[in-house]
Amino acid sequence: MWGLLFKKMVKTDEEIELIRESSLLVSKTLAELANHIKPGVTPLFLDKLAEEFIRDHGAVPGFKGYGDFPNTLCFSMNSAVVHGIPNKTEIQEDDVLSIDCGTIMNEFYGDQAFTFAMAGINAEVLKLLQVTRKSLSLGIEQAIVGKRVGDIGYAIQQYCEKEHGYGVVRELVGHGLGKSLHEDPEVPNYGRKGQGTKLLENMVLAIEPMINLGTRDVVSDQDGWTILTKDGKVSAHYEHDIVVKKDKADILTDFAIIDNAIKNNKELQEIVA
Fold first, then answer.
1. The predicted structure's pLDDT at residue 7
2. Taking a C-beta distance cutoff of 8 angstroms, is the pair 30, 258 a contact?
3. Given the DSSP bridges, would you call strands 210-212 and 183-187 parallel, antiparallel or unpaired?
């Protein structure tokens, strides 16, 4: 049984290239959204834009219809951690927008999240986003052959929780990725060194710190999807799809094209980790 499980988690080089295509399309979709984010625009408008962009590039939205989720984007604003449903609420100049997007191309999923900051956010919120983004990089550094899932979570938790006092969400975790959106192993953003599933070459993981400004505790919204911080404070969410390698993880998604789009949009704040 364990042999079959590990075989599914470990991808061939050909499969990895197909996942890379899907993952890069998610990055390009998020960059396209960055061109259009401004006060007065609605999440629902951006959702429709994302679906058109994905379909125009020969793929289909990965989230729409997944578990009956109704939209292309998970659009989580301010105190929403994840799984927010796009609506007609107009974006304000000091909002925080966590956008999680998925695609299916060549039968494989791509999955990426990015927290956008409107230009009017305050310094406290900006620091949360910077720390969360940096923690993703620290987690990815641990995604090499011979390490364990716990090493990834430990790096993220130490930086966010121990060094900066933020809340690391426990109920929501990263995951394997392939022909299914959520594959083994689970990749928590907390953990102990040397614990958990051993990392093997060519495992594909979606690593995604979800970090709260205040308490780590979360609650479910009445819509049945949106997860909110219990204390109503802001949350941040960054995600990369990566391949476990011997010396350094291969990152399949791309923040650079999103950052370039942000630089050209005066309504958005750059997030430098």
1. 57
2. yes
3. unpaired
- How many domains is the chain built from? 1
The total of other beta-carbon atoms located within 10 Å of residue 265's CB is 16
**CATH code: domain of residue 264:** 3.90.230.10
Secondary element (H or E) of residue 168: strand 167-168
What is the rounded distance in angstroms from the CA atom of residue 128 to the CA atom of residue 32?
Answer: 24
Q: Which two structure tokens, joined as six digits, stand for 128?
A: 């949360």
Residue 180 and residue 223: Cα distance in Å, rounded? 25
Question: Do residues 200 and 10 make contact, with C-beta atoms less than 8 angstroms apart?
Answer: yes
Which pLDDT score is estimated for 1?
39
For residues 143 and 150, what is the distance between their CA atoms, to the nearest angstrom? 10
Q: Are 104 and 22 in contact (CB under 8 A)?
A: yes
Q: What is the span of the domain harbouring residue 191?
A: 2-269
Mean pLDDT by 10 residues, the chain (273 residues): 61 98 98 98 98 98 97 98 98 98 97 98 98 98 98 98 98 97 97 97 98 98 97 98 98 98 98 88
Residue with structure tokens 């890069």?
Answer: 24
Q: Give the pLDDT score at 53.
A: 98
Paired with 241 in beta bridges are: 206
Question: Are 177 and 204 contacting, i.e. CB atoms less than 8 angstroms apart?
Answer: yes
pLDDT in the model for residue 6: 55
Do the Cβ atoms of 130 and 272 come closer than 8 Å?
yes
- Helices 13-34, 43-56: crossing angle, 10 deg rounding: 140
